[in-house]
Amino acid sequence: MSSTSRDGFTNKFGVIAAAAGSAVGLGNIWRFPYVAGENGGGAFLLVYLLFILIIGLPVMLSELLIGRKAQKNVFGAFRTLAPDKPIFISVGIMGVGAAFMILAFYAVVAGWTLEYAYLAVGNQLKGMDAAELSTFFNDFSSSTTGPLIWMAVFMVLTAGIVIGGVKNGIEKYTKVLMPLLLVIIIILCINALSLDGAEAGVAFLFKPDFSKVTGGVILEALGQAFFSLSIGMGVIATYGSYIQKKENLMFTALSVSFADTLIAVLAGVAIFPAVFAFGIDPSSGPGLVFETLPNVFNQMRGGYVFSIAFFLLLVIAALTSSVSLLEVVVAYFTEELKMKRKSATWLAGGSIAVLAVFCVISDGVFEFFDWTSSNILLPLGGILIAIFVGWVLGKQKMREELEAHGGKVILVGFLNIILKVFAPLAIGFVFLRGLGLL
Ligand code: PFF
């Protein structure tokens, strides 16, 4: 396929919106608060922010660069750029594997979100106190039929958008709705901060207690940084392949990382004050957001409308991420295995839905997919991506691609050193330490 015949994004805002659409999702609003809550709050946030800056950003830039340079999905990209180094194809293999695992549990959580949007429309959580809301969530998430149906609905929606292709599908939905989500979260923050007892939540999130930092916490922070930015598995490389040469990749990487981090921190500000104000345990796990926010909606003015808007927008944020996950698999099936887009999408979506069934019926499978994909597969992919751009492509080719839009890019030499030495060593160290191997 020639590079001009590939589907592509129309303009700069489209690219950033789509990549930010992939990055911003349940990872920011559902996963970040629950993992931060389980890992001590403030100190976790600090380590997480550090990882975004020194590892996340360079790896995101590397992926964009690889994708755009090769104009192919991850497999094809590594094959084109380094035909004599098959080891790098493993990024693609792990990436497709990670996409299967992530989307399987992601679709389940997105299904919970659909259920909560539905409940919000019927105002069915009104009048419940914090204890009742927790029991309600636990009963619902441990049941089978409801979560299965909603998961299936979500997978069909995801497949439907992916079949539409990049320009008609992905780009159209993200441009308008992500800014709207940001506005709703800011309003939620203001409400949460005005609750009695909110200070304890603010302190939990912003006052680091370094005695809580263990190897395990650091690994969770690294995994969350990778998960939240959608890096380490080729999603951003696949999107990079749709970006035109005239776009500035550095600007794209900076904007996407900034938007993603802002939304995660704001989600924390919206949730932790409420967690403490309503006496919820911050380490309650994956149910944290679903147990906490309905309390806020119940007592806020206009809570009915806000709850509907919030859960619907969260579904949409989840969709713009899930389409990017499915797109990795579909790009592989269509470009490498020469399947038709439609059959590739249904085959990939169908098999992922089967895995998701296991996540619905077993907490163990859910947790295994959640933990392993973020904390093992994505960081491993990150090491290889950094090494590839740092050593195999090298500084000169990095500069050429980063400056392909015709401008000057500063700090390329510094970035090259980070990718060559610092990122692989740091990820490797955190990895071995977190697994108790060092
Ligand atoms: N970054 C997405 C989120 O925060 O919800 C999840 C995700 C999408 C992870 C795509 C990985 C990925 F490749």
Give structural notes.
With 438 residues, the protein is an all-alpha fold. It has a single domain (3-434), classed as Hydantoin permease, CATH 1.10.4160.10. The protein has 17 helices and no strands. The chain has helices at residues 12-23, 26-38, 42-70, 74-81, 89-121, 130-142, 145-163, 166-193, 198-206, 215-229, 235-240, 249-277, 288-299, 303-335, 341-361, 363-402, 412-434. Helix 5 (89-121) crosses helix 16 (363-402) and helix 7 runs antiparallel to helix 15 (341-361). The longest helix is centred in the last third of the chain and has 40 residues, at 363-402. The radius of gyration is 21 Å and the shape is globular. Mean pLDDT is 93; it is low at 1-5. 4-fluoro-L-phenylalanine (PFF) binds at residues 22-23, 25-28, 102, 227-228, 230, 233, 235, 321, 324-325.
Q: How many strands, which pairing sense, and closed or not: the largest β-sheet?
A: none
Outline, from the CA principal axes?
A: globular
Task: Output the CATH class name.
Answer: Mainly Alpha
Chemical compounds bound to the protein: 4-fluoro-L-phenylalanine
> Strand percentage, roughly?
under 5%
The whole-angstrom Rg is 21 Å
Number of strands: 0
Which consecutive residue ranges, at least 5 long each, have pLDDT under 50? 1-5
**Would you list the SSEs in sequence order as H and E?**
HHHHHHHHHHHHHHHHH
CATH architecture: Orthogonal Bundle
> What is CATH's topology name?
Hydantoin permease
Q: Helix amount, in percent?
A: over 70%
Topology (elements, then pairings):
Blueprint: H1 12-23, H2 26-38, H3 42-70, H4 74-81, H5 89-121, H6 130-142, H7 145-163, H8 166-193, H9 198-206, H10 215-229, H11 235-240, H12 249-277, H13 288-299, H14 303-335, H15 341-361, H16 363-402, H17 412-434
The structure holds 4-fluoro-L-phenylalanine (PFF).
4-fluoro-L-phenylalanine (PFF) binds at residues 22-23, 25-28, 102, 227-228, 230, 233, 235, 321, 324-325.
